[in-house]
Amino acid sequence: MMISEFIERTGFEPTASEYAKIEKAYYDFNGNKDEFCKAFVKNGGEKKIYKARAEEIAQLKSQLVEMEKQHKTEMEAREKQINDLTAELDRELEWKPSTGTGTNMSQSDYDHLANCGKLMTDEEAKTFIADECGFAPEKIHILHEVHTYEVNKHRRLRKSGTFDRTPVYESTDWNYVRFDCACFMYELVNGELRFYCC
Question: Which terminus in the chain has less CB density within 10 A, N or C?
């Protein structure tokens, strides 16, 4: 019996794998195709297949959940291994805070200034820098991101922190601006012009 004949007689369309089981049952059935199809409908064959489908779906979902758990466990183990190796390498390279590179003002000092002082727009900061340092305003480029760095025993640098900073003014000796001018990088820290190195 072809699958099209089975569908025509029962009104039920099985998958290929389901029909393979139906066909095996047909070969074991004592009767012709019409009798087999009538018996299939009468005995709730369609309902049984739907139930088997639901059970298979549930089983596949369970397997998927188990695979996801296993994958998560493996990824966590690998991540821990990577972190352990990274920490071991860091100890070997003797990383420590670098002086003379990155920002010249600590983040805690900047936060204190920002809470007390006036935040400047970029245009206000350009005018302030031009007045204080004598730079041409059109050559001043205000920047808002600064970094801290660490250095290892081989004198190699890496970024250890990134901070967003708006220019701030409280007084002539309490202020902060990060800017570039004519290919040089600067910070104005509490009225003192400092090179910004990285």
Answer: C
